[in-house]
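seq as requested:
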Amino acid sequence: MFSSHKNLAGRTAVITGGSGVLCSEMARQLAVQGVKVAILNRTAEKGKDVADEIQAQGGDAIAVAADVLDRASLEKAKEQIVEAFGRIDILINGAGGNHPDAITDVEIHEDGAQGKTFFDLQEDGFSRVFASNFTGSFLASQVFGKELLKQEAPVILNVSSMSAYSPMTKVPAYSAAKSAINNFTMWMAVHFAEQNLRVNAIAPGFFLTSQNKSLLTHPDGSLTPRSDKIMSSTPMKRFGKPVELIGTMLWLLDENYSGFVTGITVPVDGGFLAYSGV
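struct tokens:
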């Protein structure tokens, strides 16, 4: 389905949050290109199914336990990966997500509004979501970055969101964190440019995942009112498919295709960002 990127063969990619719907697809497709893949999750069991699937198809993958908010955990994971594969060339910062403690029940505040409002959000819930999406990317970049700099064409690929550009209602912590990811991507790109470490990001539009499925679809598969709003703002009138992220990912990771590209965030969104609503 995708052109062969022989340039990537033999390299090692670390993917945080690697068992998720989007990142697991990235892992599988990188393995097809001959990349050795380390799938990181808080428990290794979460990534084992993905690693087993890759191995069954003739690829090379391991599942490694690591908490992106625990530096010691990340350092231990790095040692395991270097011992297994000998090198690290690619870091994909995919860990993140949301949590009910950082989500409001209402989109717009009104006097007497029912359910959780902005004023009901708890600091620890807000901080946890911001940290898992942003601080985790910062720590992983620090820990794995030293190994990346040992290679000739290292790459960091961050995972952003449409909410980075125009914050979605109900999810202030997630939106703030993803906006920070865009800014951090540019900062790191400049900071490491002379060391040839390229840093870019990919911003998925709306894809059905295990985290958002209950918010976007009813049990019978029909769309929720929130999904109706998404469809009305997405010119292509559908959700994205995980495989539709892969072409952009491969382009950004292979320096033969994007060697002079750093510091950008690429939307893969069915036209969502381009649509003004009128």
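Residues 123-148 form the longest helix (26 residues).
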